[in-house]
Specification:
It comes from Labrus bergylta. The chain has 426 residues and is an alpha/beta fold. Helix content is 31%, strand content 25%. Helix 1 packs across helix 12 (412-425).
Length: 426
Amino acid sequence: MKRPKLAGVFLCVGCLLAYLMFVKRHYGASKPEAYRLPPHASPSSNKLSDDRPASRIQFQYGIMFDAGSTGTRIHIFKFQIENKEAPKLNHETFRAIKPGLSAYADDPEQCMAGIVELLEVAKSSVPSSVWNVTPVVLKATAGLRLLPGEKAKHLLDQVRHLFLKSPFLSRDDCVSIMDGTDEGDLHGADSPTVGMLDLGGGSTQITFSPQDEKTIQTSPFEYIRSFQMFNNTYTVYTHSYLGLGLMSARLAVLGGVEASPLGGSTELVSPCLAPEYSGSWEHADIVYTVKGQKAGEPVYEACLTKVEKVLYRKVMKASEAADMDFYAFSYYYDRAVDLGIIEEKSGGTIQVSDYINAAIRVCSSLSTSPPQSPFLCLDLVYISVLLQELGFPPQKQFKLARTIDQVETSWALGATFHYIESLKRH
């Protein structure tokens, strides 16, 4: 990224871009009576600043739970509001726990301990004087979208019950499953523009601000979002591919299907595993026996063929994106750490070719020097093919980061800000 210091300035605005369609669709239907003031609160106390005396600077807090497929994360944001300007992020507290809510699909009550733990983090981060006007929200992403409807509903009901008992501000829409298109996220300024790639467990997202009118005209209608905010018009290319996150992709490459019926085979044999390997792997509450095929065709070539079949015509190339600066997050970051290409805490840069070359090296040496994870060959082949299918050439370089200007990168910032704005409108 040519001017990284700009990311912090525009972080709030950027995170809102792909999220706005969710606000229009979801909160437009909200009713004033959906509010629930916490115990001992009265309507007169429902102001949107902390206990400072009236001044030109005010603060508003917001709590967002990001319930992903592999873990639950809490973001506690402190926004600074000055002279009626656009809010600025003053501080963020972040904490994450594992496993994700979907791990408790058959025993929903067991998820409560982790949520309570994170609520305690919120209590220690937000002044008690403004608990009653600090909204608490949970948005579940791909992991829960892949569960049968009733199981997901029971999990969310448990969380909603905890939120209603908490001292924070909650309302009927405080717990929900996000639509896949709402997970896109963008960080950066008008020049240069900065896009994002996110590879989760159940889905993968791409978001950027198109500069070429051809991109807008030739892309599917649902990939392009245009809206006005802070007296500016923003246009964003954003799409979430459900089922193409790394864990879901593993299952597909191994030959399994999501939500396999009871009595179906749970043994999966794949050329992407070491020829003599046999082990177990749990996904979406099902434990599979996974095995490598007998030695024969070179592992990398055989695995590449499998992955290409899984991704065939599943994603759209965004040719313009190849010329833009991109940040990449989540499993893109984790696998680069596994390879020793970047430091776990500080991040760094990586090229598509680095993933390709690492895939060739790891897959070719499975028999002689098996990696720490039996799935590393598969994961690297999948990442390298996915990036090329999205339109990125081998020489394309990405910035790998967990945070930008000490802010955890995710859709949660924009979602929290818009939730607060929706409270003000009612």
